[in-house]
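Sequence in, structure out.
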Amino acid sequence: MVTATGSGLIRLYGIGPAGAARLLGDVGDAARFADRDQFASWNGTAPLDASSGEQRRHRLSRAGNRRINRVLHIMAIVQIRHDTEGRAYYRRRLAEGKTPMEALRCLKRRLSNVVHRQMAADAAKASPGGQAGATTNSSAAGPIPTAGTSEQPQPGPATQPTGQVATEIPATAAAPRRGRPRPARNPALTGGRRGSRVKGGPKGPSRSDAKRP
């Protein structure tokens, strides 16, 4: 990917093939950032103001793209461990009274500017006749889509043939009961209760009548 694009990121001290590929994949077109300050805010290297009274201090920003922030962090550590311009800048910040972490954050912010400048130069080199970062494969350079020219009518909704009556089964129709039907009860014979005797009917002999001769 890095070789195909012809990017110069690989020539920056502290950026390897993996770091350059990560920058190209996440950043894409450097022209989408208005300036280097916006790029630094996007990757999280722009420190946040934490001053109190007359004491001027800045703290680490936890926002931004952490993958790009890690690439810049590795780049800063590599430059500090070797005799580079980044080490000289880091030592100057220490001489000003900054802590090692504060000096490291300052170096990462400076390297963010270096990376942004290199990516902007690569984009301008790739498209000398147009805007920085535009390519022939971008959506802006593609053809404008047009509507279809077919004049054939579209199929309409399905209709029922004439003369055919649709039969529908009511949803509330109950299914017929299976088995032998029960006979209807006669309230005059049962008196309204199951097993009760008919009022006014003949009574059977009592026990006292059964004992009489």
